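Appendix B, Record 12. Input sequence as logged:
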Amino acid sequence: MTTTELMTAAFTVYSSMMSLPEIAMNKGYVCHLNPLCKCGIHSVLLTTYTEDNVGKRFFHVNISNMCNFFMWFGDVELIGWAKQLAMHLRTSCNDFESKLIATRNEFTIQKEEMQSMSVELAKTRTQLEILLTDKTQSLKFIKSEMRKLSRGVYDIWNVISGKHLDK
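Logged structural output:
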């Protein structure tokens, strides 16, 4: 059995243990069966979606550009409608990713605007509380002055009507 056949058999067993979403998402899989790079790091199994090699699997290591290990996984190549479908699915996935990024950016902008509005609202509330306190103090002063005036008017009325003589 060749190394490629052995790796293919090992990956078949390994991939059967993964869930379908993991396989579909193409996150890259690190397994103790994956080949090691010259630095001794386990490679990651990925899928290419370039025009020439759509759907082909490969092992890759790129940690801090230490060794940039690369090795094709098997000799499977998509042709005909399978290749077209894979490219279409990749394009659709890229479109959804672009929309997701745009939506996240829009959300971030709206979140920042809301935070800014929240700060402005807090400032406005503080200013209104200060004005209300000032108006309350002014109103108390005006009420006090009105009481004094009403007592004065009452006293003047009593003087004019002669009631102050009755006492």
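The chain has three helices and four strands.
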